[in-house]
Amino acid sequence: MRHIMVTGGAGFIGSNFVRYMLHAYPEYVLLVYDKLTYAGRLENLEDVAKSYADRYVFVKGDICDKDLVEETIRTHQIDTIINFAAETHVDRSLMAPGSFIQTDVYGTYVLLEAAREFDLERYHQISTDEVYGQVLEGHSREDDPLAPRSPYAASKASGDLMVLAYHESWGLPVTITRGSNNIGPYQYPEKVVALFATNAIDDAPLPVYGDGQQMRDYQHVLDHCTGIDAVLHKGGLGEIYNVGTGSEMTNIAMTKILLATLGKPESLIRYVEDRPGHDRRYALDVSKLRALGWDNAYACDVAIEKTARWYAQNEAWWRPIKSGELYQTYYAKQYAQRLEA
Ligand code: NAD
Ligand code: DAU
Hints:
- The chain folds into 2 domains: 3-183 and 218-243, NAD(P)-binding Rossmann-like Domain (Rossmann fold, 3-Layer(aba) Sandwich); 192-215 and 247-283 and 300-327, Alpha-Beta Complex (UDP-galactose 4-epimerase, domain 1).
- Helix content is 45%, strand content 16%.
- It has helices at 12-24, 46-51, 66-75, 90-95, 98-117, 151-170, 192-201, 221-234, 251-262, 287-290, 300-313, 315-323, 325-340; strands at 3-7, 29-34, 56-60, 80-83, 122-128, 174-179, 182-183, 206-209, 215-216, 219-220, 239-243, 249-250, 269-272.
- The strands form 4 sheets. It has a 7-stranded parallel beta sheet, with helices on both faces.
- The longest helix has 20 residues, at 98-117.
- The protein binds nicotinamide-adenine-dinucleotide (NAD) and 2'deoxy-thymidine-5'-diphospho-alpha-D-glucose (DAU).
- Nicotinamide-adenine-dinucleotide binds next to helix 1, helix 5 and strand 5.
């Protein structure tokens, strides 16, 4: 695999993955294909464009645009697609589910058709632990039934099923990874850790949904990247692999670690109205990926501390986002009433 098209590569995980792969594989060419929605930012790849000018290409495009997807594959002799492109925020999927179905389901279908048409060596789908639904006890294994509960999770589950259908029907060489909550550099400050870190730095309230006892497996994005790398190079075709630390913590515990790291008081915590249909717990069994020789480098608490410090040291990245009209409008819609109440 030498010419890899990374769809959604200008977003949070995609940009970290591109940086990681260019460094790890000096013989690989990486092409980022991204629509640049509110979450996709060329700033996330500024250093990459400078350091790897000979092996990094950017194409602005929508994964739903069949003609441009095909033209890009043909022109750049792509042999592998890794699909990160998606609408990704659960709260936004509760406000407006349409774009989630369009990109996460229809867009996946367009990429699969192109992968089939051009006889690609690999199609890899980036999926999520949310497809299993909430897991009140035990840990989700890859063959567990899917039970998504939000429009975001349902659209991702549909994408997964379509990927598997292309493998069964036409032998398309696919793999899927299902990651837990990623945290780290360049995450749009709508997801909880980036939001809370940047709010805390500004001494603004941290809106904890419900009782804050929901559990998540907060993994560092670099561990997710090494997990995807392991599956790309050692994973079985048609197989699914969970990627996470394999342990969980409550949101309130995460919030307190973050505040302690930044030296901010717990009085910033505000318990606000819960997210509708809020999944109580996600937990992954990651033994299948570990059997490929992969291991995570960071425990959840270390990942949270490391992430909080990055936001403290990189205000120039997130301040323009948070002060922009688009973000302010979203923040007011999602939080103004909650925080007033
Ligand atoms: P993100 O929202 O930061 O980035 C998504 C990227 O996709 C953006 O660059 C955006 O411009 C691009 N995009 C959106 N619609 C597009 C379209 N129609 N055509 C082309 N590009 C489009 O998301 P992220 O957190 O980096 O997530 C990346 C992938 O990982 C997603 O598939 C998501 O479901 C999955 N995932 C995320 C997490 C997490 O915790 N963030 C965990 C597990 C899996
Ligand atoms: O589990 C993987 C998923 O993790 C990814 O597939 C999604 O793309 C990603 O957005 C993330 O989904 P979550 O809904 O778990 O992440 P979020 O950061 O939105 O919320 C994490 C937890 O924090 C969740 O229990 C809700 C809670 N929360 C979130 C926000 C934004 C709050 O308490 N307050 C908030 O303001």
